[in-house]
UniProtKB/TrEMBL annotation:
InterPro entries: ACT-like_dom_sf, GcvR, UPF0237/GcvR_regulator. CDD domains: ACT_GcvR_2. It comes from Pandoraea terrae. One of its GO terms (biological process) is regulation of DNA-templated transcription. This is Glycine cleavage system protein R.
Amino acid sequence: MTTSLILNVVGPDRPGLVNAIADQAAAAGANWLESRLANLAGQFAGIVHLQVPEAQVETLKAGLQALETQGLRVFVTQGGTSGAPAAARLLQLDLVGQDRPGIVKEISHVLYSRGVSIEELTTECVDGSMAGGTLFRASARLQVPGNVSTEELRHVLESLANDLMVDVALDVRLDQAAAA
């Protein structure tokens, strides 16, 4: 029997941190299933999903805790059941506009108020040399409940985009690919 573990990791970035985590995982017989890792403001930060034999969970936790001597904090959480509700569908949201505080707050509030779950969110600020200033870009994979139409969601997001002065695109290709 195996157990899913989710690792949240953070520490000063330096070479070898992924290797240190992978060494501990391999020593416990864990399978590295997926991860999102990045250097954010000089800090190594990420999340890792491991599948580990139940008998090795405590051994793995102890090995990961030992990484704190190297400045890497690892928080371990047992995974739960996953998956979208049967009536949910996946949509892709892409956004770009002049950077300013509050964009994520406004967009996430609109989604939350309609019961839309953000399955994955990636954001970045980039030089907008052609537009002048800094551009904010976001890409999100959304789980949209069956009682929220794509057109309704598109309309409310486009209305908010006008207020925020950003461009949004809601792509149904994910929904169509899931149905195929």
